[in-house]
Amino acid sequence: MNAIEKINAFLDENPVFYLATVNNDRPRCRPLGLHLYTDGKLYFGVGSFKEVYQQMVNNPHVEITTTNKEGIWLRYSGKAVFEETYDLAEAVIAASPMLASIYNEQTGRKLAMFHLEDAVAELRTPVAVKETLLP
Q1: What is the CB neighbour count within 10 angstroms for residue 87?
Q2: In whole angstroms, how far apart are CA 93 and each of 17, 25, 54, 98, 116?
Q3: Which of 39, 76, 125, 135 is the most buried (most CB within 10 A)?
Q4: What is the mean pLDDT of each run of 10 residues along the chain (135 residues)?
């Protein structure tokens, strides 16, 4: 299992994770659940009409984190790169009735999919790095 697959598996086991961004000079953090591993990349989605999207456009450096029942947590950070086409978002929306009720032609809302580049990732205990996943 490669590093991205390990990150994806950890997120599968811990379906609520947190995305941290910067708003001007202040940190912002929110829970997310949407992630998709395909073609060797791990993708995430946010609404392009939301503040989080604009924060990521202004400063693409983000961190994703979550923890498991044993107290091990994931830190996955890098530069958010948004997909230029809407194909992936359409496939994700089509597979989820909840997302389809939010992102559709009637609402005019769009789902922006992104992956992380120049990423670092680690699994941690409360006192130390347990495993460095990237790089």
Answers
A1: 10
A2: 19, 33, 21, 8, 21
A3: 76
A4: 97 97 96 96 97 98 98 98 96 94 96 98 96 96
